[in-house]
UniProtKB/TrEMBL annotation:
It comes from the Eukaryota. This is TLN2 protein. It comes from Indicator maculatus. One of its GO terms (cellular component) is focal adhesion. Its main location: cytoplasm. The keyword Metal-binding does not apply. Pfam families: Talin_IBS2B.
Length: 243
């Protein structure tokens, strides 16, 4: 399946270029670029799923790594289309144009990450380290979203935020164990668990910080500690990767 994935990913990169340039062109060209990218990401998802299936059910953690990689690309494409919509017909120095360039950069980063993951899947000696690298990049992107001024769609209770920190504790123990064992399968499992644990914590923390009963001072503290927790966890993963 590898050749099909590479070919389809290359087509998606071309669609990305058309999307970015489409912001400064006609609505028709922009619509065509958006439709083309939507079709290509659907095709890419299918070939990646076939690739994951071809690994066999004996290696579910590596299958999850591949599925996570295509999910990251799809999310980046969705953000890019949103940024393109916001930048359409705007002057070159408009802030929305900078957001568009940033979204395009994330998109290319995630496609590159997918291709590296696909290549690493065939080499058992690098599967774990590649999964960890992809997770570190994913967490950094999630942290950027967390630190943005965007208000979450819904608020949640502080208790929910506290509950989500338990996942960080479990993932930390798993990361330490993986660093001690250095087994590729342990490192892959750590990478997959870490993605979910940190993403869930960041979402719950931001939603809780915007609870109606939370003051501005407490909100700032909660957001600061959410950031510090994530940076500390990233440092831990970097150490595991080094080991």
């Amino acid at each position: 399946c590898r050749e099909n994935i590479l070919k389809t990913a290359k087509a998606l990169v071309e669609d990305t270029k058309l999307l970015v340039s489409g912001a400064a062109s006609s609505q028709d060209k922009l619509a065509q670029a958006a439709q083309s990218s939507a079709n290509t990401i659907t095709q890419l998802a299918e070939v990646v799923k076939l690739g994951a299936a071809s690994l066999g059910s004996d290696d579910p953690e590596t299958q999850v790594v591949l599925i996570n990689a295509i999910k990251d690309v799809a999310k980046a494409l969705s953000d890019l289309i949103g940024a393109t919509k916001g930048a359409a017909s705007k002057p070159a120095d408009d802030p929305s144009m900078y957001q568009l360039k940033g979204a395009a950069k994330v998109m290319v980063t995630n496609v590159t990450s997918l291709l590296k993951t696909v290549k690493a899947v065939e080499d058992e000696a690098t599967r774990g380290t590649r999964a960890l690298e992809a997770t570190i990049e994913y967490i950094k992107q999630e942290l950027t979203v967390f630190q943005s001024s965007e208000v979450p769609e819904k608020a949640s209770s502080p208790e929910e935020s506290i509950r989500m920190t338990k996942g960080i504790t479990m993932a930390t123990a798993k990361a330490v164990a993986a660093g001690n064992s250095c087994r590729q399968e342990d490192v892959i499992a750590t990478a997959n668990l870490s993605r979910k644990a940190v993403a869930d914590m960041l979402t719950a923390c931001k939603q809780a910080s915007y609870h109606p009963d939370v003051s501005e001072e407490v909100r700032e503290r909660a957001l600061r500690f959410g950031t510090e927790c994530t940076l500390g966890y990233l440092e831990l993963l970097e150490h595991v990767l080094l080991v």
